[in-house]
Amino acid sequence: MNAPLPPLSKLIKIPGIASPVQSETISHFEGFGNYSRLFFLGKSAPVVVSQTLKLFELQLPNFLRVSKSHLVNPQHIISLDNLKGRSNQLTLSNEVFVPVSRRRIDGIRTQLSVQGVH
Known about the structure:
Layout: E1 11-12, E2 21-22, E3 26-32, E4 35-40, E5 47-49, H1 53-59, E6 64-67, E7 70-72, E8 77-82, E9 88-92, E10 97-100, H2 105-115
Pfam families: LytTR (PF04397)
Protein name: LytTR family transcriptional regulator
Domain HTH LytTR-type: 47-114
């Protein structure tokens, strides 16, 4: 029997932010070393925290790891676009473009087709 899917929205505690944050307000994460940048909807500047993408990936199982340095909220994906050559990118609802790694593209396409994103 299949295990139930985790809820799409969840409160998570983020180091450096006093109160827990709704996961649906996060558009994506960008990792660099042992730090992550969190991009919130409606805010122009990211929040930098001293936590790796791997830890956020474990806390937010519905988010998609699209490359070594990007974790994306699937609720905010508008489209998956094929660029010149073998490059692909996601377009998010806040008009941000996120690269998708070549080795992860097939899995991402499968997950997005289940969610109805083209």
